[in-house]
C-alpha cells in the first residue's frame, strides 16, 4: 500500500486537484481537539462498506487518514480488496500531521 508522509501529502494536494482526503476517525476525533485536514471527507472506518459506491465514483486518488495511520492503512487494504486501487495511506496520521506543524480545521 502506497504511503505518504504529511509533507508529501501537502505538496501533492497543492500540485494536484485530483485527490480526496478521507478521514476514517470517529466523529469525536474528527470534530475534536486534533481537528482535521481542510477539505477532508469524513467517513468513519465502520461506515466505509456503506460508502463504497461514493468512493468508487471518485475519479481521483483517495488519501486515507486516521489518528496514527493504522486504521487508515486498514481502510486502504479494504478498498483494494473491493477493487478500488488508487488509494494512499497518510503515514503517522493526524499525530504526524500535527508534529509536522501543518494546519488543521476545526468545526463544531
Q: Roughly what is the average pLDDT, rounded to an integer?
A: 93
Secondary structure: number of strands: 5
How many helices does DSSP assign?
A: 5
Give the strand order, joined by hyphens, for the main sheet: 1-5-4-2-3
Short descriptors:
alpha/beta; 5-stranded parallel sheet; globular; 108 residues; 5 strands
Describe the protein.
The protein starts with a strand and ends in a 9-residue tail after the last helix. It has helices at 6-15, 27-30, 52-56, 70-81, 93-99; strands at residues 2-4, 19-23, 41-42, 61-65, 87-90. The protein is an alpha/beta fold and 108 residues long. The protein has a five-stranded parallel beta sheet. Helix content is 35%, strand content 18%. The mean pLDDT is 93.
Concise synopsis of the structure shown:
Helix content is 35%, strand content 18%. The chain contains five helices and five strands; from the N terminus they run E-H-E-H-E-H-E-H-E-H.
Amino acid at each position: 500500500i502506497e504511503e505518504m508522509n504529511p509533507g508529501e501529502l501537502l505538496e501533492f494536494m497543492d500540485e494536484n486537484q485530483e485527490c480526496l482526503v478521507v478521514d476514517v476517525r470517529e466523529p469525536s476525533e474528527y470534530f475534536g481537539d486534533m481537528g482535521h485536514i481542510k477539505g477532508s471527507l469524513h467517513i468513519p472506518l465502520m461506515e466505509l462498506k456503506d460508502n463504497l459506491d461514493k468512493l468508487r465514483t471518485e475519479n481521483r486518488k483517495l488519501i486515507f487518514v486516521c489518528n496514527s495511520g493504522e486504521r487508515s492503512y486498514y481502510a486502504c487494504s479494504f478498498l483494494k480488496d473491493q477493487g478500488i486501487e488508487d488509494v494512499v495511506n497518510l503515514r503517522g496520521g493526524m499525530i504526524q500531521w500535527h508534529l509536522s506543524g501543518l494546519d488543521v480545521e476545526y468545526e463544531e
